[in-house]
Design goal:
By secondary structure, this protein is mainly alpha-helical. It has helices at about 5-30, 35-45, 50, 60-75, 90-105, 105-115, 120-145, 150-170, 180-190. Helix 1 (about 5-30) packs across helix 2 (about 35-45), helix 1 crosses helix 6 (about 105-115) and helix 5 packs antiparallel against helix 9 (about 180-190).
Amino acid sequence: MPRTKEQFEVMRKGSRQRILDAALEVFAKQRYHSATVGSIAKTAGISKGLMYNYFKSKEDMLNELMIGMMENLMCEFMPLKPDRKFTQDDIVNFINVGIDLVLEKPYYWKLYFSVFVQPDVMAMVYDKMMEAGKPYMEGLTEYFRSKGEANPEFMMRYFAAVMDGIQLHCMLDPKSFPAETVKKLLIRQFV
């Protein structure tokens, strides 16, 4: 049965997303270098040849996943608006969502952390990730400046490092990590 251009585009987007979901799962389980295009295609339920209609390479999939993940996660943390300053409520949301997302979407975070501990893989996505995260780093720095911190950039980096460590512990031990208690401690410390 002939399809309309709109129907074809919906099918194409669905297939592309299925490939990205499969790549996320395979990269998170096997790490980037061990993952193969064949294993991603198999997980997606398509042929390798068809997969190349959507992505040029495994590196293309990684780039799209990491940048898309960063943008989506940051939008869930704190949607940015032009000329908007971060408030205490934004920081509370950042803390709550930052911990909840790890517990809800472990594959994202397994990929995130595995990329960071593979320097050659990190080099592939570093510039784009820093570009996507820059407005948030600037916003957090300005937030700490407004709180009277002597070195607001240091506090932004410290806050990010603390969040990364907590997220890693949530990912490694989701059942017994005291997430709610830790959220309260973080809010007390940073808000």
